[in-house]
Design goal:
The chain is an alpha/beta fold. It is 34% helix and 19% strand. It has 3 domains: 215 residues, Aldolase class I (TIM Barrel), CATH 3.20.20.70; 103 residues, Rossmann fold (3-Layer(aba) Sandwich), CATH 3.40.50.10860; 117 residues, NAD(P)-binding Rossmann-like Domain (Rossmann fold, 3-Layer(aba) Sandwich), CATH 3.40.50. α6 packs parallel to α7 and α12 crosses α13.
């Protein structure tokens, strides 16, 4: 089930919030702690025919209640008399509020400042507080933090357990909770109506991750990342898996300690990972079955579990090559003429190596001449001082460092380096692109669009994982076209 949390502040507008939520969920949580003036709970319960759960959380448990503790307890007691389907009671007060009528009791425990420990002891206290279900809430910024919460939900117990992860890995936990039988997962009705930061919306759960099709038989494909490109990749791939009628869905993940990560993947039965190009981390320490055909400087796009261990796959530069071919109409464009790589990162190293291997005459320059010179030596290409880079004549320019700013000031790349009929490869931004796109257009250059590179990369990933071509209909759904 989906539980939508509504947090109205106005008694007048609260019925509209309830009606809107009722169309998209199975259970509504009505938070009383957000109201400016005390509402009439009985009237609100009659607005919709969906079951409603009443909550009123204190600030220490992540709520907005400004009154006294005694006033909060009294408000919850009066709300129970009105006859909601559920009432959420934090463990601190549950013993002080007796069971009444047919209202079920969700006894909750929140740990917002540190990882939760002694879960079994807390569960027993909740049971003694006459819980019909138990809820655990804590911060889940990465998978390490979410892991105890997942263990609490998946372990067989005599009472149902609901988990709520706050943070960047909250979506990860919600999808895992669905797979492992959590009675419901929480969602916001739409963007701007979240009860906490990064809470997934109903639309996101349905359209991006197909939550209603996830069951105990679903296999997950991990996607490392939490940005726009990760969401789009998940939408595209999930649409393709649905079209193929395969019980596979994408699971967004933010790893914590990489030493623990392989064991977690094993327990979740995840044997393949796609790495979001916007993710700034490094999974090379997980590699136990190296691929000698690809230089280590090339970014890892996919990790596959093999009998020999985790094997890296590096598709990023092949995707750039394919996107450039579509743009230029030239199959061997990466090996033609002079290429200037601008940057001093590992990406600059990898892309310089790639173009050099293709046969191009590669020069490399960066804001720091010393750092760029070291990268050039490692890549085996020519180094050019930064103050001389604008005098170079290049057929292709690669803006290699993520976040490299476009501008005329110190520490910025002057766009006048782009000239007519050049090919510009922009690795400075994600799929949303950067200011260099407009500069390339105005100056008559060919711009290798990051979105086109991303599309080629997803196609390569899908072919690798399934042996099939990715359906065009999946792109239409994923990219909204």
């Amino acid at each position: 089930m989906i539980c939508i949390t509504v947090t109205p502040t106005s008694r007048t507008l609260a019925p509209a919030d309830l009606l809107n939520a009722s169309r998209r969920c199975d259970l509504i949580e009505l938070c009383l702690d957000h109201f400016i003036a005390e509402p009439n709970v009985g009237d609100l319960l009659r607005v919709v025919d969906k079951p409603i759960m009443i909550s009123c959380r204190s600030e220490k448990d992540g709520g907005q209640w400004k009154g006294t503790e005694q006033q909060r307890i009294q408000l919850l007691r009066e709300a129970i008399v009105a006859g909601p389907a559920w009432v959420e009671l934090d463990l601190d007060i549950a013993q002080n509020i007796p069971r009444y009528g047919n209202t079920k009791r969700l006894v909750s425990f929140a740990s917002l400042n540190r990882p939760l420990s002694k879960i079994d002891d807390i569960f027993e206290q909740c049971r003694q507080a006459k819980a019909d279900a138990v809820k655990f809430t804590w911060l889940t910024e990465d998978l390490d933090a979410a892991w105890p919460l997942l263990a609490a939900v998946t372990q067989p117990r005599e009472l149902p357990v609901v988990g709520l992860g706050l943070g960047k890995s909250g979506l990860t936990f919600s999808l895992l909770g669905r797979k492992y039988g959590s009675p419901w997962i929480y969602a916001a009705l739409e963007r701007g109506m979240e009860s906490f930061e990064n809470q997934p919306t109903v639309w996101q759960l349905k359209e991006d991750y197909h939550w209603d099709e996830i069951s105990g038989k679903t296999r997950f494909l991990g996607i490392i990342g939490s940005g726009d490109s990760e969401n789009i990749a998940a939408r595209v791939l999930n649409a393709a898996f649905q079209e193929m009628d395969k019980p596979i869905r994408c699971l967004p993940m933010l790893p914590g300690d990489l030493l623990k990560f392989p064991k977690m993947l094993e327990k979740m039965k995840i044997n393949a990972l796609i790495v979001d190009p916007e993710w700034r981390g490094d999974l090379s320490s997980m590699v136990t079955a190296p691929d000698p055909s690809a230089p280590a400087a090339h970014p890892i796009d996919v990790l596959l579990e093999t009998p020999q261990g985790w094997k890296p796959v590096r598709n990023a530069y092949s995707a750039i090559d394919l996107a450039g071919r579509r743009l230029t109409g030239v199959d061997d464009w990466t090996g033609r003429g002079a290429v200037t790589v601008l940057g001093q990162s590992t990406t600059a190293l990898g892309i310089a190596e790639y173009f050099a291997q293709k046969g191009a005459a590669v020069s490399l320059a960066g804001f720091s001449d010393n750092s760029a010179a070291a990268i050039a030596r490692q890549a085996g290409v020519r180094h050019v001082q930064w103050n001389a880079v604008f005098d170079l004549r290049a057929d292709t320019i690669v803006i290699a460092d993520y976040g490299m700013p476009c501008g005329l000031g110190k520490g910025q790349l002057n766009p006048s380096i782009i000239r007519e009929r050049q090919t510009v490869v922009d690795l400075s931004a994600g799929i949303t692109g950067s200011e260099f796109a407009e500069e390339a257009r105005l100056r008559g250059a060919r711009y290798v669009d990051p979105t086109s590179v991303f599309v080629e990369q997803i196609k390569l990933h899908f072919r690798l994982l399934t042996g099939r071509e990715l359906p065009e209909t999946a792109f239409q759904k994923g990219l909204g076209s």
